[in-house]
Amino acid sequence: MKQLPITLKTRQLAALIFGSLALSVSAQTMKAADVHPAGYPTVVAVENMGKKLDAATQGRIKFQMFPGSVLGGEKEMIEQTQVGAIQILRTSLGPVGPVVPEVNVFNMPFVFRDIAHMRAVIDGPIGQDLLDKLTASSARLVGLAWMDGGSRSLYTKKPVRKPEDLKGQKVRMMGNPLFVDTMNAMGGNGISMGYGEVFTALQTGVIDGAENNPPSLFTANHFKAGAKYYTQTNHLIIPEILVMSKVAWDKLSPADQALVKRMGREAQMEQRKLWDAAVADYTTKLKAEGVEFINIDNKPFFDATAPVRAKYGANYADLMKRIADVK
Length: 327
Ligand code: GTR
What we know:
Layout: H1 6-26, E1 28-33, H2 41-56, E2 61-66, H3 74-83, E3 88-92, H4 115-123, H5 125-136, E4 141-147, E5 152-156, E6 170-173, H6 177-186, E7 189-192, H7 198-203, E8 209-212, H8 214-219, E9 229-236, E10 240-245, H9 246-249, H10 254-288, E11 292-294, H11 299-304, H12 306-313, H13 317-325
Parallel strand pairs: 1-2, 1-3, 6-7, 9-11
Antiparallel strand pairs: 3-10, 4-10, 5-8, 5-9
Helix pairs in contact: 2-10, 6-12
Bound molecules: beta-D-galactopyranuronic acid (GTR).
Residues 35, 74, 91-92, 94, 149, 174, 195, 212-213, 216, 240 line the site of beta-D-galactopyranuronic acid.
């Protein structure tokens, strides 16, 4: 073999050895997952966070997004994140409640007065406390940031204006006993099932309705399966959460961990802007598709769910008071 000039050879060798060492120690292409399709505010904000991390770390940390439930429903994706098969997950906090009961405080019906109240809470010390509680729990998830899921209202095949109208109606709720209790208290029959099953369940009459925000109602096409009446109950204002698998987190240097957290916070703010635009856009689209938005006084639903707040809220009485005190 022809000898290379010694200087070049040594440098190349060094680059090869140290380059691959550095790669094997810290380069991570993280699988990021979401139930929502490409273009949805949460998906876009997480993709942009990945691009920023890629640039800031010269390619050491990148995200590869798997949108549209391709890696499973939220319950399955939470489990995969816990074991490290998924590294970054954006999920509703709803199905996290059964895994980390401390976070259920944000899953309570009417715990927030309105969206502005929810945002003030998640942006402030209570929001940080809950992310930290999740991280400190045995769930092997690291709470990075919050995202906006707006407020959830009821959509059904028959118009609903008051709790009595829900009598005998089977309404899909996310997988968390707290939500089944909430729907039962609201007058209907709560049925827990995954997001991906709702369309067919509506079509086949397994359920008579569900509840969600306008962007989900539109992008999941549930209105095309007969749920044409959208009653403004605003009974749940559940923040979404961005988590990292503890397995992936532990492989990051403290400096990279701090960077990921900072960019998570930036994603929280970016998603909010995208969210507000999406709610306006999808509301217009739903109306154009013939979905009837029914404005109601939601006090009867608030009153009906008082026993749910009493039952579950007993575990977080102090926290509920702190939340209520946030202006
Ligand atoms: C959406 C939320 C999803 C998922 C879905 C559901 O609003 O963004 O994460 O939880 O609701 O109802 O399952």
